[in-house]
Q: What sequence folds into this?
């Protein structure tokens, strides 16, 4: 490995299965409790951030209210571009969610050690991202007050949703995903909530925390059950990482539009989702490690490892782009060829090149170890990837619709302030929840970090009794 | 309430139920019923008639035959009246002029009837404004003014300008006017081709001979836009379509003119002669002058004119028509008539004996100028106008409005505000044509009667009745006008009340109304020298839909895309790409057009069908006082120098030269066009006549063949929804379930389908307006395009510019080009290009892509082949539209059908026209062509009530009914007795996007081109 997995002067620790990520600056359990629980103290900057997020949300609520009152015409729809910013943002936010589940579930099953310090943040991000995504299909429909017609509820008229429609599959995918990821987040939080409870002085808060921790007593039996439950949920969530975004991709792949009707979409969407999700994790975690003084928890080694993941998914996504172009040419279908030409060199070249630059070209910098270990660059790159991935969905949704089989109806698309207001509001909604979360519950899994930190030995002195089998 | 009582009955029989439980159940049931009964709309009451008016059965339509008054042609109408309100105007199939067809303007007569800007009462001037008054007051004022004129003996100086109309009313009017010593009225029609009519009268002895296109092997038009509203649009279009629909032996069509109008686009060949050189070409064809010299001055290749001469010589029978609006239009028409005589066409293709009388007695621009001059000189003490708008439809040079200001008292009988009426002192609103008695004699010996289809919408009175009342009030006239009303005057004149009444059901009668005399000739005027100073020829042409401007306050016509430019609500300056390049402008950039008469600033529109030295502007928009819908656009009349045709005095609309300059700035073109080229996708397909005869017509499919599917019926690849049914859709499967036409359930017994013959379709767009009228389609309106159309409109806009028009059927117009129109170089030898029109509506696919993607089953397939849209179920995901390859689904962005919204498309009383059989769609749902399912149901219900089956061709859909080309055929393709069953198997049949396996129910028949015969063959 190019990276030094653990400091040379420290011996291996026995209680970490894959001991390639260590926290040398974290000495004992008390330090973990002290430092991580210290992040729960509200600061002025946090209030400012929360206020900004809520102001953005306010703009979103106003824009949506205006849209409901006036009609969807106030958004920038330009038939035949019947889907726009809302569906783009829907896919974007669902995609964001995927990295969280990947980190907390799949990497857990694969015993990837670098997940430990970032998975809680990523998991919270997942829940809030899916909560955000779930709003968009409702915002986007013409009669949002009738959205429940998409849910198969028993009704007197015996009318069911159309199970052939990918939009109904979406309903199942999103609700399943939200349920499982929320449960997973909550279950993982139980020991930490118990730790909070033990330190809490305020009786009301203590009572609430007691309830939420299900009376956790830190017993051997509880830990055994907890580990089983967590493993089970991890195994349960794993297929969702693949299936949810595959289902989302069916919204497009099941259509017959040139640019949509393609079998590559499910893997392509999943890779893109993980790619964008990791970028969002960086966007959140890199400032967090700075402002919360957690650099010795989320070390450069962690960032380095996640950067490799980003690089890999970027290459997969880039490969998918190239395959799309190739198939359009190789398939010999005029509609597809026309469409892809228009997408890359015609009307939509700017969007396509934003996408290609941000998602394919810039991440190539991660081949450099130096840049992988440069948090500032990673943060900047994460913003570019977020933009690039939003534009990837733009490029999928808008150019296909605007340039479909019937030339007479070709058109352009330009969002209005209402679209942008709701988009900004969605970021406000997401960050509002996240900011509230970081000040209420520990942003790192205390219990899991303690697993890395060497336990206090009876001798009282920190000891490395067992030296790894190297 | 029945629910609750049923429940109570059931419950009381069980003694085990305690009173308390019973009340609980009752409470719950009652609440449930209340909740279920909740709707978002307010509760309305249906009150039945206590005593039903004569012939009126609630919910059942009456149909009245009458005569259309929208132009001078005199087409027959059948107006559908439901519960006392006219809801649809259709052609009268028995009428010899229009044979059941009706143009867009005729369809839109309903929006004149229900125009929200109609005068609701008589109006009287008070200061700067017209204020409402009573009929008693208005009549008194009018009688006093007339008495004054009469007593002073000034009657001969009074001017009365009436709209040009056929029938007895002009004679009646003159007889009343004569009683006051007033000179005969002027019958003004700014768009009437007076120059041609007058030349025809001299040459053929009939002002408007019938043109039998079918008898010709060659049609040559020198600017005669017979498909654009010039002349008698409906009968001409019927004749043309019948001729082209013959396929074998159909005439070839050559158009000569600087701008290719809709008529020009229907031609097989275009000779882009400079404006004003047509006469020289015709003279050369007559042997007076050389073709080479003519080609030189016309700016076209000499080969083109040689070819023209050769083809005319070679044609067994040709129909040569002249139109145009030059100063020499009359001379040109005379020369063309001579050419027709020389070629022996008279009697063969030009039939003076079967002539139309539409343009008898019509006054032109010169007469209006003479009136204006008299008014200016202060000679006119009293001025009357009725239905005509000379203050708008005359050249600004004669300054009609300023001249009117010098008249002491001006009276208008118009029922809608316009530029002329707004200057008047007294308005006595006439009834609308659909509320009036009258007659017309469109063909010699044939009377077309006009009867009211409903009570007047507002407090208006028929001008004829007003005049009658005045005459009765005048002691000298009273004896001659002892009639109850104009109807009795008319019936007495037309052979008695009984005969009149007998004729009303068809509104057709033999007989003759008064002969018309032409207005006294006045001297015509040539353009001033300055008019020829400009850099570009200016072609100002009457709009095919708005006419000279009279249709401008009808949103249907404003939002009907111009058949050529596809522009709505907007005035554009049409110019060739080369012209635009030399000016440094692109489409949408503002340019200023200046002539000696005035100037306008409007966006540039790049049009390949125009010479680079010519620009064109459509007349009819940019009104200042013609109501709320007429404001949009620019008034091209302001560019017209006051030149006239030297023989007839018709306005010379194309005799002015203009200077154009870039104005700076740009606006979005308000167009419904996306890409005007097919990009090789075989949407509007064509074949040549030679290939067709040889049996070699190729399908223009450039990709691959569609999948073979279960063919129940010849012609339709998958006539039922079989293939939409997933697992059942195995092409070879014998089990077709209930979708088998022979299934015992009879569910799929019928397969509603449509054929569209592109050899007949001219792109006139009448079907679009018919669809608007039938299906309550909202117009989006100029108000909602931001400041593009109405500078004072600053609210959010961009709706049609965002392709949000709602037309369920649209006319796609494709240039057959290999590059964008703006990049086309003008070659005077080879300027010709092909244009194809194709009506596009929901294709009712057997395997519809829209159906499986709808999450709530708002769109699904009916066994009879219809792709059904359930508005109430739609939540508005718009996925169906995304997945529709034809893009024929339209989304209701703002709730155009909701009276509480500012976007409401049917302000009182326009909503009286709404078809009660069709839902007015609400905000946030998808809508589309239904194949007029309400008409299908009506026919089926009628048949069921009469205990029979629906008869073949018993009914048809709105677009097919109105089509003046008879291009659309609708029916049951599963029954060989319907005519569609035959047409669907035509050798020219194809389906659009066949390779997508959508198995459409709309079958298109290829357009047939008639290329130039080989030179050797005709030599």
A:
């Amino acid at each position: 490995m190019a990276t030094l997995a653990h400091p040379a002067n420290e011996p291996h620790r026995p209680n970490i299965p894959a001991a390639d990520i260590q926290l040398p600056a974290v000495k004992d359990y008390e330090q973990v409790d002290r430092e991580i629980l210290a992040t729960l103290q509200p600061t002025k900057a946090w209030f400012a951030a929360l206020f900004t997020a809520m102001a953005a949300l306010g703009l979103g609520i106003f824009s949506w209210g205006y849209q409901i009152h006036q009609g969807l015409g106030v958004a920038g729809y330009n038939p035949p571009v019947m889907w726009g910013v809302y569906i783009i943002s829907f896919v974007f936010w669902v995609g964001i969610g995927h990295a969280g589940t990947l980190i907390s579930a799949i990497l857990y099953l694969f015993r990837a050690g670098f997940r430990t310090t970032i998975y809680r943040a990523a998991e919270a991000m997942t829940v809030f991202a899916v909560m955000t995504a779930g709003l968009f299909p409702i915002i986007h429909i013409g009669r949002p007050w009738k959205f429940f017609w998409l849910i198969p509820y028993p009704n007197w008229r015996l009318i069911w949703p159309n199970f052939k429609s990918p939009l109904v599959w979406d309903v199942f995918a999103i609700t399943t995903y939200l349920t499982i990821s929320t449960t997973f987040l909550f279950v993982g939080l139980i020991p930490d909530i118990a730790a909070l409870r033990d330190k809490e002085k305020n009786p009301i808060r203590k009572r609430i925390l007691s309830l939420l921790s299900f009376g956790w007593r830190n017993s051997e039996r509880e830990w055994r059950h907890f580990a089983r439950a967590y493993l089970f949920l991890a195994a349960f969530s794993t297929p969702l990482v693949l299936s949810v975004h595959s289902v989302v991709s069916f919204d497009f792949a099941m259509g017959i539009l040139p640019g949509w009707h393609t079998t590559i979409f499910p893997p392509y969407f999943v890779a893109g989702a993980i790619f964008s999700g990791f970028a969002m994790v960086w966007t959140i975690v890199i400032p967090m490690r700075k402002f919360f003084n957690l650099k010795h928890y989320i070390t450069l080694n962690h960032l380095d490892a996640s950067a490799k993941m980003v690089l890999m998914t970027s290459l997969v996504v880039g490969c998918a782009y190239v395959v799309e172009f190739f198939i359009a040419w190789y398939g010999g279908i005029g509609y597809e060829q026309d469409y892809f030409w228009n997408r890359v060199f015609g009307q939509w070249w700017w969007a396509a090149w934003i996408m290609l630059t941000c998602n394919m070209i810039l991440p190539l910098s991660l081949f450099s170890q130096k840049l992988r270990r440069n948090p500032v660059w990673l943060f900047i790159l994460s913003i570019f990837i977020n933009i690039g991935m939003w534009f990837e969905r733009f490029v999928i949704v808008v150019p296909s619709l605007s340039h479909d089989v019937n030339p007479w109806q070709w058109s352009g698309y330009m969002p209005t302030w209402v679209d942008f207001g709701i988009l900004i509001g969605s970021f406000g909604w997401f960050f509002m929840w996240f900011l509230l979360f970081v000040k209420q519950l520990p942003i790192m899994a205390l219990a899991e970090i303690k697993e890395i930190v060497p336990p206090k030995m009876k001798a009282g002195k920190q000891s490395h009794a067992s030296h790894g089998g190297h | 309430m029945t629910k609750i009582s049923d429940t109570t009955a059931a419950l009381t029989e069980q003694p085990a139920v305690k009173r308390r439980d019973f009340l609980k159940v009752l409470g719950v049931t009652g609440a449930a019923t209340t909740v279920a009964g909740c709707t978002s709309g307010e509760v309305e009451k249906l009150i039945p008639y206590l005593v039903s008016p004569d012939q009126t059965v609630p919910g059942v339509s009456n149909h009245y035959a009458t005569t259309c008054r929208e132009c001078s042609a005199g087409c027959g109408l059948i107006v559908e009246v439901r519960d006392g309100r006219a809801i649809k105007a259709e052609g009268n199939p028995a009428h010899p002029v229009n044979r059941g067809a009706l143009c867009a303007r005729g369809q839109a007569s309903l929006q004149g009837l229900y125009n929200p800007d109609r005068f609701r009462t008589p109006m009287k001037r008070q200061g700067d404004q017209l204020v409402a008054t009573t009929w008693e007051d208005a009549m008194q004022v009018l009688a006093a003014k007339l008495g004054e004129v009469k007593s002073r003996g000034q009657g001969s100086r009074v001017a009365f300008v009436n709209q040009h109309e056929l029938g007895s009313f002009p004679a009646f009017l003159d007889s009343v006017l004569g009683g006051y010593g007033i000179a005969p009225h002027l019958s003004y029609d700014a768009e009437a081709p007076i120059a041609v009519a007058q030349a025809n009268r001299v040459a053929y002895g009939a002002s408007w001979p019938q043109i039998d296109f079918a008898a010709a092997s060659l049609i040559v038009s020198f600017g005669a836009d017979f498909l654009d509203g010039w002349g008698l649009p409906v009968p001409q279009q019927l004749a043309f379509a019948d001729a082209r629909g013959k396929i074998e032996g159909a005439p070839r069509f050559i158009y000569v003119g600087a701008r290719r109008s809709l008529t020009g686009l229907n031609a097989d060949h275009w000779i882009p002669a400079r404006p004003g050189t047509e006469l020289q070409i015709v003279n050369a064809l007559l042997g007076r002058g050389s073709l080479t010299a003519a080609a030189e001055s016309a700016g076209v290749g000499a080969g083109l004119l040689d070819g023209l001469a050769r083809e005319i010589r070679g044609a067994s029978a040709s129909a040569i028509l002249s139109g145009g609006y030059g100063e020499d239009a009359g001379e040109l028409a005379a020369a063309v008539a001579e050419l027709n005589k020389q070629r022996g066409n008279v009697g063969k293709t030009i039939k003076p004996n079967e002539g139309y009388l539409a343009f008898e007695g019509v006054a032109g621009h010169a007469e209006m100028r003479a009136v204006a001059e008299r008014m200016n000189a202060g000679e006119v003490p009293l001025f009357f106008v009725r239905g005509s708008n000379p203050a708008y439809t005359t050249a600004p040079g004669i300054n009609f409005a300023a001249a009117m200001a010098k008249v002491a008292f001006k009276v208008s009988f118009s029922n809608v505000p316009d530029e002329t009426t707004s200057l008047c002192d007294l308005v006595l609103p006439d009834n609308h044509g659909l509320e009036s008695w009258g007659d017309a004699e469109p063909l010699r010996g044939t009377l077309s009667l006009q009867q009211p289809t409903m009570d007047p919408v507002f407090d208006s009175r028929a001008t004829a009745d007003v005049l009658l009342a005045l005459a009765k009030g005048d002691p000298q006239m009273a004896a001659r006008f002892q009639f109850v009303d104009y109807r009795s005057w008319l019936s007495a004149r037309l052979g008695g009340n009984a005969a009149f009444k007998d004729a009303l059901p068809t509104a057709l009668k033999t007989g003759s109304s008064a002969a018309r005399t032409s207005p006294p000739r006045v001297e015509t005027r040539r353009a001033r020298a300055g008019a020829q100073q400009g850099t570009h020829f200016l072609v100002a042409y009457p709009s095919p839909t708005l006419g000279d401007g009279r249709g401008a306050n009808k949103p249907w016509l404003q939002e009907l895309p111009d058949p050529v430019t596809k522009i709505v609500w907007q005035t554009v300056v049409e110019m060739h790409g080369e012209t635009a390049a030399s000016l440094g402008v692109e489409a949408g950039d503002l340019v200023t057009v200046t002539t000696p008469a005035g100037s306008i600033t409007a966006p540039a529109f790049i049009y390949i069908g125009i010479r680079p030295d010519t620009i064109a502007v459509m007349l009819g928009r940019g009104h200042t006082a013609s109501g709320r819908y007429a404001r949009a656009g620019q008034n091209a009349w302001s560019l017209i120098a006051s030149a006239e045709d030297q023989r007839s005095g018709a306005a010379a609309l194309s005799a002015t030269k203009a200077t154009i300059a870039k104005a700076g700035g740009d606006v979005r073109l308000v167009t419904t066009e996306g890409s005007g080229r097919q990009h090789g996708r075989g949407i509007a397909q064509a074949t040549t006549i030679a290939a067709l005869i040889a049996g070699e017509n190729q399908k223009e499919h450039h990709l691959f063949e569609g999948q073979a599917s279960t063919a129940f019926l010849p012609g339709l690849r998958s006539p039922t929804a079989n293939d939409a049914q997933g697992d059942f859709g195995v092409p070879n499967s014998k089990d077709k379930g209930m979708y088998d036409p022979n299934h015992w359930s009879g569910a799929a017994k019928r397969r509603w389908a449509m054929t569209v013959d592109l050899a007949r379709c001219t792109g006139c767009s009448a079907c679009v307006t018919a669809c608007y009228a039938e299906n309550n389609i909202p117009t989006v309106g100029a108000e909602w395009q931001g400041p593009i159309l109405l500078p004072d409109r600053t609210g959010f806009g961009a709706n049609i510019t965002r392709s949000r028009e709602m037309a369920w059927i649209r006319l796609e117009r494709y240039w057959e080009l290999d590059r964008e129109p703006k990049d086309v170089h003008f070659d005077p030898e080879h300027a010709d290009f092909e244009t194809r029109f194709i009506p596009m509506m929901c294709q009712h696919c057997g395997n519809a892509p829209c159906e499986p993607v709808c999450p709530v089953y708002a769109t699904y397939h009916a066994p009879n082949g219809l792709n059904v849209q359930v508005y109430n179920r739609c939540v508005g995901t718009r996925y169906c539209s995304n997945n529709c390859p034809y893009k024929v689904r339209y989304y209701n962005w703002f709730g155009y059908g909701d009276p509480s919204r500012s976007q409401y498309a049917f302000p009182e009383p326009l909503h009286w026209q709404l078809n009660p059989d069709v839902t007015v769609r609400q905000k946030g749902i998808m809508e589309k062509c239904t194949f007029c399912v309400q008409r299908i149901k009506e026919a089926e219900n009628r048949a069921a009530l009469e205990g029979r089956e629906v008869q073949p061709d018993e009914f048809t859909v709105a677009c097919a009914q109105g089509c003046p080309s008879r291009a659309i055929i609708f029916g049951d393709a599963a029954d060989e007795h319907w005519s569609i069953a035959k047409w669907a198997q035509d050798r020219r049949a194809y389906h659009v996007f066949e390779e997508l396996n959508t198995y459409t129910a709309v079958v298109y028949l290829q357009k047939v081109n008639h290329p130039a015969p080989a030179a050797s063959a005709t030599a």
About this structure: Residues 323 and 893 of chain B are 43 Å apart (CA to CA). The longest strand of chain B covers residues 657-666. Chain B touches chain A through 56 residues (CB under 8 Å).
